[in-house]
Amino acid sequence: MTRNTRILMSVIYWAFIVYLFVPLALMVTMGFKDSKFIGFPIRSWTLDWYAAVIQDTQVLSVFGYSMTIAIATTILSLIIGTWVAVFLGPNQFRGKAIIFALACLPAVIPGIISAIALRIFARLIDIEPGMFAIILGHTVHNVPFVALVVMARLSTQPKSHIEAARDLGADSIVAFFRVTLPYLKPALIGAGIFCMLLSFDDFVRAFFLGGYQPTLPVLIFAKLRSGMSPEINAISTIVLIMTAILGLWAERSMRRLNKGS
C-alpha cells in the first residue's frame, strides 16, 4: 500500500467517524439545552428534560412495554433460530440450500413489505394488533440472524466433542445440552443482544402490528409530529447509553467465553 493510498484510507476513515458520531454528539448535547427549541446557541444547561423523562409515567410504561416485547422476541428467536441452525448445520440433504434460503428470507425482505405481509397474516389467523402480533413479527424477522450466527459457531466445533460424548453413552439430546449448547453460548449471547436491540429499536413492524399501546420508537415518532424538543433528545440519549452498556457487557462476556473454550 502506497503512502497516498494510506492517506486516502485515513481520510475516508475519519470522515466516516465524523459522519457517524457528530449527529450522536449533537443529539446528546441538545438534551441538556434549557429551551424548548432545538438549535444553537445554547445559553444555559439543564437536567430538567431528563428529570421530566424519568417522571413521565407514559414514557416509563412504554419503555417497559417495549422491553417486554424485546425480551419475549429474543427468547423465541433464540429457541427457533438455534433449532434451525442445528437442523441445517451439520446435515447434508437434498433441498438444504432451498430451506436455508427460505429461512434467511425474512432478513432480506424490505421492512415495509414484511410489515404489511405480517399484518395481513395476523388478520387471517385472527390475531389482534398488539403485543402478541408485534412479538410474532419481530420473531419472524430475527430468527434468520440467530440461525446465521449459531451456524457460524457450529462450523467451528470439533467433531471430537460430540464423538467423545457418544462414546461416554450420551444420546443426541444429552450431547446437545451437555456439549453443543455450552459451546454455542458466546454465539447465543451475541445473537440474543442483537435480537433484543433489533426488536427494541424496530419502528415499521411495531407501527403496523401494534395496537393502542405504542412501543418506544412509535411514541418518539408521535412526539416528533408535534415538533422536536429536548425531551426527545433526552429519551434517545438514555436509550443510547443503555444500548452501549449492553453492547459492552455482551462483548466482554463473549471474549471471556471464547477464551474459556
From TrEMBL:
It comes from the Bacteria. Residues 63-250 form the ABC transmembrane type-1 domain. Keywords: Cell membrane, Membrane, Transmembrane, Transmembrane helix, Transport. InterPro entries: Bact_Polyamine_Transport, MetI-like, MetI-like_sf. GO terms for cellular component: plasma membrane. GO terms for biological process: transmembrane transport. It is found in: Cell membrane. It holds the Pfam family BPD_transp_1. Its main location: membrane. It is a multi-pass membrane protein. The chain crosses the membrane at residues 12-32, 62-86, 98-118, 130-152, 187-212, 232-250. Signal peptide: none annotated. PANTHER family: PUTRESCINE TRANSPORT SYSTEM PERMEASE PROTEIN POTI. Belongs to the binding-protein-dependent transport system permease family. CysTW subfamily. This is ABC transporter permease. It comes from Nitratireductor aquibiodomus RA22.
